[in-house]
Amino acid sequence: MGLFERYLSVWVALAITVGIVAGSIMPSAFSLIAGFEYAHVNIVIAVLIWLMIYPMMVQIDFSSIKDVGKKPKGLVLTIVINWLIKPFTMALLGWLFFKGIFADFVDPQTATEYIAGMILLGVAPCTAMVFVWSQLTKGDANYTLVQVSINDIIMIFAFAPIAGLLLGVTDITVPWDTLLLSVVLYVLIPLVAGAVTRKKLDKEDDHTCLNNFLKIMKPYSIIGLLATVALLFGFQSQTLIEKPEAIVLIAIPLLIQTYGIFAIAYIAAKKMGLAHNIAAPACMIATSNFFELAVAVAISLFGLHSGAALATVVGVLVEVPVMLSLVYFANKTRRWFN
Hints:
single chain; mainly alpha; two-stranded antiparallel sheet; 2 strands; about 0% strand; globular
């Protein structure tokens, strides 16, 4: 674990603070950045998210898919939780809290946007940070690669239809062209670019060139993440200063969703008789979110200053400390598994 991964919560908290302070001091600068758009895609955010996603995609070894038949139970668990349970429980919780429990605290339009942001988080299962969570729980690294590879392929075809379905069910107008463009921009192209790069760098199959490239790219990926977080909180600074309770309202259903999904996955893994080094990463993949994709799509669909964008940003704020707590729990309960 490097210094960045070890203190990820600290760096994210600092980026959030810098963003809020800068956004309140220099609102015109953030308005200028917000104006750099093409086809509802903010160019600056798109570049930063690419900086984050591309090195992560290079890490994925699609040749590992040939091992898909080995220990299929863990893969089945990941797929079922990620695509048949998690998106729908997130939509249900969003609707329950913002159309019911919190209806008196949020206006209907903002509530709808919060629900949309939560749905986008729920339909975007984690791709990159999974490798960190797997390492922290002493997971099977090769099996984690298989899970992530299969997950990303499914995401290309399933993200837009499931997101569109759930957004439509919650009475949100779905701009399909923007949604599909986002999938191509933030999933398909980075995946293909990552696979091509990996193939070119790893011709000798000894990972030397590949690892050197990833070392070079790591600082850019970190800069991309922290700059994105700072910018997003800067764009939302006025709302956060005037309505800090919005973060709390959004965080409550997100926390319930995260811990609830982990509990379902962990109990299922135990019942299925999975080994801990398969069960723990499978549950981490099922629980965490591909927040980079969710943020990018929320901005494309609803705008930088929307409640949907804010909800996905709060997802970033909540996810890191929560996932670290689940890593701690998984390590403490290792004896529960054979």
